[in-house]
Amino acid sequence: MLALSINARRYELDADPATPLLWVLRDVLHLTGTKFGCGAGQCWSCAVLVDGKARPSCTLTIGGTVGRDIVTIEGIAEDHPVKRAWVEEQVPQCGYCQPGQIIRAVGLLRENPAPGREAVRKGMQMNLCRCGTYPRIEAAVLRAAKEAQP
User: Fold this and answer.
1) Given 19, 43, 66, 76, which is the most exposed site by the fewest CB atoms within 10 A?
2) Which helix (DSSP H) or strand (DSSP E) does residue 117 occupy?
3) pLDDT one-digit tens code per residue, 56-109
């Protein structure tokens, strides 16, 4: 049995430790907000927070996440500054990359609460968006950072 902490909830799984976290989230736990994109850690549509840092869940094994704190898009509160900024800046187009983008933005702002434009561009560069809403994503991250400041 493997014990995982996901969204502040403990799950015990009887599964192969080499199973990618993405498939456990989607197929076993039915946390389907985390999306499958490329399966190779190249697009980051499947990003989750692991101990506060954004990581692609398709390249993480469940054995490697035992004892770590995992947060999926379902674990980010609806009133979180990043989610509010996403709506205010009208970021979504097709929406497929949005969970990964939001997770990455939350992780970025935890690491750097007051990033400039270049830091946002660099911090978000791993996440691919087919619709090309990068200027809106950048604006949303900067807005969330500003709103989160005391």
Assistant:
1) 66
2) helix 117-124
3) 999 999 999 999 999 999 999 999 999 999 999 999 888 899 999 999 999 999
